[in-house]
Design a protein that fits this description.
One of its GO terms (molecular function) is DNA binding. This protein has about 140 residues and is of the alpha+beta class. It is about 40% helix and about 10% strand. The longest helix is centred in the middle third of the chain and has 24 residues.
């Protein structure tokens, strides 16, 4: 039986409505000289872009400062640091997600979000509380 989008029942067409629908996937890798693309048949193609050799480096504080306002970037950088700390704690402890959830006072689904790096699902205050419960002793330092 087919669904309304034409895919077999039980599956979805993830690219439906996407500007890339119907196109074969291409793997792209950027280099200072240009972009190297691989066609579906595996043959390499090179596209040089004018002016690409003179790219400027981003903000030394991190990519968040290149993409967001200073206030948003500062919060995202703190959240990312806390999330990475919790990921490292989970990996080093070797406990199950269920046991980690009990230790941190949250659900297994939230632990899964931490492991997958789903930063958008966590506020700064929640990450601080979780890090404290994990024994990571989060602290804030201000720099002028």
């Amino acid at each position: 039986m087919k669904t309304t989008n034409g895919s077999p029942q039980g599956t979805t067409n993830a690219t439906k409505g996407s500007p890339f629908s119907g196109r074969p996937k291409e793997v792209q890798r950027r280099s200072p000289q240009g972009t190297t693309c691989r066609s579906p048949q595996g043959e390499a193609k090179s596209r040089n872009r004018p002016g690409q050799a003179g790219l400027t480096k981003g903000d030394a504080r991190g990519v968040f400062y290149d993409l967001f306002s200073a206030e948003q970037a500062a919060e995202l950088a703190m959240r990312a640091t806390l999330l990475r700390g919790l990921q490292a704690w989970l990996a080093a402890s070797g406990i199950t997600q269920t046991r980690a959830a009990a230790t941190l006072g949250t659900t297994q689904a939230r632990i899964s979000d931490i492991k997958r790096g789903r930063i958008e699902r966590f506020s700064l205050d929640l990450l601080v509380r979780l890090a404290g419960r994990a024994g990571l002793r989060p602290e804030v330092r201000l720099a002028a």
